[in-house]
Structures are given as structure tokens and as C-alpha cells.
User: Fold this.
Amino acid sequence: MIRLLAISVILLLASCQPEDATPTGPVNDMFDASTATLLREGMWMGANNYSVAGSAKLYQQSDGTRVLVLDMFTSSNGPDLRVYLSTDVAASSFVNLGKLKSTNGQQVYTIPAGTDLNQFRFALIWCQQFSVLFGKADTQ
Assistant:
């Protein structure tokens, strides 16, 4: 039994290879807030001993497109990090906005048309591979 547990731990650690990590180079997605309406915002907070900081801002652009802007953003690194809009911090019900572009810098993610933002209170940085919360922003 102990041998099986040890092998499982080794396989789990080996599955998290450096090439699986999120890029760390700064991102500076261009976003003109002067032509958009700020709908909601919240500050990032780390979770589970991970560090995440900055702000999460939900905007509606003049063409009706809605976006999530990660501003002054920094995060601990990890494999398969995703950006979610979620009903709760456990990601019980969520919209996956895509892979985290980088662990730092301003980033813009398009929210799919038809998404009811009233259902999604939190923005999350979520490790999809291991179902682990890295950070949350309460945008209500």
C-alpha cells in the first residue's frame, strides 16, 4: 500500500513539467477603458498558498462585446492555469475564458456572447489539470 502511494505521488509530481507552466513574460494587452462601460470590479486574492494580485474588471465595450480585464495582475505560476467566471470559488459552475496568458501584466479576455453575468460573481485563476484554485476576485 505504501509503495502504491509513493508511486502515485511520484507520477503526480512528474506530470507537472516545466513546459506545462504558464508563461511569465509580461503581457500588455491594449484596452481603451474610455470607450467602455465598467460593469463590475474586484481585487484579486490568492488562495491555497498561491499569490495572486491586481484587479479584475468587467467591461462592456461600445460594440456590445463584454470583456474581463486583469489589471496590474500578478500570479504564482502553475500548470494549465485558466481564467474562469464562476458562481463560487469551488468552480461548481463556470465559464472558461481561456488559458492564462501570463503570470503578470494587463490581460483582456472576451466573455462569450449570451453569458448572463448576473450568474457569475467570481473571477478565478484555476489550475484545470489538478482542480486547484490559485486566486479569486469577488466582482459583486
Summary: Residues 2-14 form the longest helix (13 residues). The radius of gyration is 16 Å. Residues 8-18 have pLDDT under 50 and may be disordered.
